[in-house]
């Protein structure tokens, strides 16, 4: 076992996680215990054929759930219905949603990789469409 010297610190620094966020990021790491405490626990619909199954049902209301309670419910619940946490209890109404959208906060500026790749894909598809149109036009002249 090494002493508390510089070697340990060097080792720790070489494997420490590096976390970077994009300006405007809305989702950050959070304390699991505090998150679960604000969630309600629900049993999902059982998904039986013909629509005769049970609908979602509230198992534990928001503010009453703990990590131990979550584990207890998970171990004692039947496996025929999926369990899920719900952090947001009620959807925003239209006015609240607009207010949230207009809030002064940093916005994500960079476009996603998929979006840029899709634009390139669109260009390729347009070229294919032009090639097909040219061949069809050439066939008509014969």
The N- and C-terminal alpha carbons lie at a distance of: 86 Å
Reading the helices and strands in chain order gives HHEEHEHH
How many β strands by DSSP?
3
Radius of gyration: 27 Å
Q: Give helix % range.
A: 40-55%
Beta-strand fraction estimate: 5-15%
Quickly count the helices. Answer: 5
Assign an overall shape. Answer: flat
Widest beta sheet: strand line-up: 2-1-3
- Most strands sheet: 3 strands, antiparallel
Mean pLDDT: 76
Structural class of the helix and strand makeup? Answer: mainly alpha
| Low-confidence blocks of residues | none
Folded structure, characterized:
The chain has 142 residues and is mainly alpha-helical. The protein has a domain at 29-90. The protein contains five helices and three strands, in the order ααββαβαα. Strands 2-1-3 form a three-stranded antiparallel beta sheet. The protein is flat and about 55 Å long. The mean pLDDT is 76.
Topology summary:
Elements: H1 6-15, H2 32-38, E1 40-43, E2 57-60, H3 67-76, E3 83-86, H4 94-102, H5 113-141
Antiparallel strand pairs: 1-2, 1-3
Give a brief description:
This protein is mainly α and 142 residues long. It has a domain at 29-90. The mean pLDDT is 76.
